[in-house]
Design goal:
Layout (H helix, E strand, L loop, with lengths): L2 H8 L9 E3 L1 H13 L4 E6 L5 E5 L2 H22 L2 E3 L13 H4 L2
Antiparallel strand pairs: 1-4, 2-3
Amino acid sequence: MSNLLRSYKTWRGAQLQDLVVPDIRARMALDIAKHCSMMTATEDGEDAAGRQKIRLLTPSEVANRAVDIANFMYERFESLEWLAEAPILPDDPDAEVSINDALK
């Protein structure tokens, strides 16, 4: 039995399920965004010698940037058809289901 189905059978709280899942290209792009989007600086005027000063984004700016990136990436993944429909698992967590049955 796969880890997905095993965890589904053992977690009897709320039954949550993703309706779409990212493919390998989308997951790679998400990893790139995680590593590149949070350490961003922006202009912050000039110092006394006339050199450009920079500052890290505030937590609020980082959150807004992350949301903007996520929205853009999701729309882009949709346009590239990089999102796949996830299989619907049975309502009964004790039901024996194979991955092939779930994908039908």
